[in-house]
Amino acid sequence: MTQTHLEPALGVALTIRGLTRRYGEQTVLDHLDLDIRAGEFVAVVGRSGCGKSTLLRLLAGLDTPTSGGVRADGSPLDTGHFDTRLMFQDARLLPWKTVLANVGLGLKGDWQPRAHAALAEVGLSEHAGKWPSQLSGGQRQRVALARALIHEPQLLLLDEPLGALDALTRIEMQQLIERLWRRHGFTVLLVTHDVEEAVAIADRVLLVEQGRVGLDLAVPLARPRRRGDVHFALLQERLLSRVLQQPDAPLPEPLPPIAPAALRWAL
Ligand SMILES: Nc1ncnc2c1ncn2[C@@H]1O[C@H](COP(=O)(O)OP(=O)(O)OP(=O)(O)O)[C@@H](O)[C@H]1O
């Protein structure tokens, strides 16, 4: 089998200014301002209905802002100069196409070697000829990742992609996404309900509330990150209590150190 390599794509920098989205009387995003560096891994958290998916849909060009806009590397987002891929909780594979054909969906020419390369990157080389129904939920999400990778995206938008997976598969997928991000250098926005996931994987965590970025928290932990680590646990705890608080509440003081042994049960 001929295999090719996917070229590393440098991530795109985003400048979001005054981004507003109203649905009828409801203002979901309200003059949201945000700067994201090229190649940054950003997690977006917030209460259900706060507008996380709306933000991703606007960035993916699947929805249009009521006002305000987004510039990517200085150009308006919709100029189509760079590739953006969006991945959902559900892999959205076509059941009548093989795994390989799902990865190469919509591509023309000699796409098969690239589809094999993308499948190899997500550890599914042996499954190329199977049908989606023959895969586990985690494997289906890997296929969805491979389908995104084959386009060598500069911006990867992940809308709760691991939400339906069991805890261990979820951690494996987080590690895979982190490896792929480090190898390819794309910019990532990951929407998640899971504060631990955000701390495990992101450079920076944003809390969306009242239509804006209510908290913008750097995650200064070395990689690879260990969930049993005291600093990890403290940051997670601080973030969780802030997410659960009312808007405009300050970040709480750090908790006293916790012995790592006491945290092992959570792994
Ligand atoms: N197409 C639409 N028409 C009308 N209202 C919409 C539309 N899309 C989203 N909304 C509303 O906008 C608000 C934000 O929705 P969004 O899906 O962005 O929230 P979310 O933070 O991703 O929520 P969750 O965490 O539950 O997925 C919700 O109140 C939702 O009902």
Automatic annotation (TrEMBL):
<dbReference type="InterPro" id="IPR050166">
    <property type="entry name" value="ABC_transporter_ATP-bind"/>
</dbReference>
<dbReference type="InterPro" id="IPR003439">
    <property type="entry name" value="ABC_transporter-like_ATP-bd"/>
</dbReference>
<protein>
    <submittedName>
        <fullName>Aliphatic sulfonates import ATP-binding protein SsuB 1</fullName>
    </submittedName>
</protein>
<dbReference type="InterPro" id="IPR017871">
    <property type="entry name" value="ABC_transporter-like_CS"/>
</dbReference>
<dbReference type="InterPro" id="IPR003593">
    <property type="entry name" value="AAA+_ATPase"/>
</dbReference>
<dbReference type="GO" id="GO:0005524">
    <property type="term" value="F:ATP binding"/>
</dbReference>
<feature type="domain" description="ABC transporter">
    <location>
        <begin position="14"/>
        <end position="235"/>
    </location>
</feature>
<keyword id="KW-0547">Nucleotide-binding</keyword>
<keyword id="KW-0813">Transport</keyword>
<keyword id="KW-1003">Cell membrane</keyword>
<dbReference type="InterPro" id="IPR027417">
    <property type="entry name" value="P-loop_NTPase"/>
</dbReference>
<dbReference type="Pfam" id="PF00005">
    <property type="entry name" value="ABC_tran"/>
</dbReference>
<keyword id="KW-1278">Translocase</keyword>
<comment type="similarity">
    <text>Belongs to the ABC transporter superfamily.</text>
</comment>
<keyword id="KW-0472">Membrane</keyword>
<keyword id="KW-0067">ATP-binding</keyword>
